[in-house]
Amino acid sequence: PLTPLITLSTILTTTHHYHQTTKTSFRTSHTLALQARERTQKAQEALRQAQAEYEHAKTAEEYALSESERATKEKEEMHEHVDYVEGQVRSFSRKMRDRRVQLTGLKRNE
Fold it and tell me: Among residues 98, 76, 45, which one has the least CA distance to residue 53?
């Protein structure tokens, strides 16, 4: 037979057990929340760093492209200049054909 004392003791034991379970559950969920917050902060910092690195790389790429375009233009201009000078030398050399000239300022005859 159940007595009121046994019933109260059972209720108290059960309540205590549920209370302990609830505290354990709270501690676990609180710990998980803190860990998740830390991971979120780390991920946000990593994202900020990655965005900064991306912006730096993008700027470097744009600079490299502009320098490449400038160098290409400069190369084409120099190529045109070399072609012009070669043409001038050929024209001058035709006039000098079959003439004897004296070279001055030479250290060695090459």
Answer: 45
In tens, the pLDDT along 43-74 reads: 999 999 999 999 999 999 999 999 999 999 99
Residue 7 CB partners (closer than 8 Å, separation 6+): none
| Cα–Cα distance for residue pair 105/90, rounded to 1 Å | 22
* Alpha carbon 79 to chain centroid, angstroms: 36
- Alpha-carbon distance of 110 to 101, in angstroms, equals 16
Tokens representing residue 106 in the block: 């030479």
Say what the pLDDT of residue 109 is: 63
Q: Following DSSP, what letter does each residue of 67-101 receive, concatenated?
A: HHHHHHHHHHHHHHHHHHHHHHHHHHHHHHTT---
Q: What is the identity of the amino acid at 44?
A: Q
**Whole-angstrom Cα distance, residue 110 to residue 93?**
18
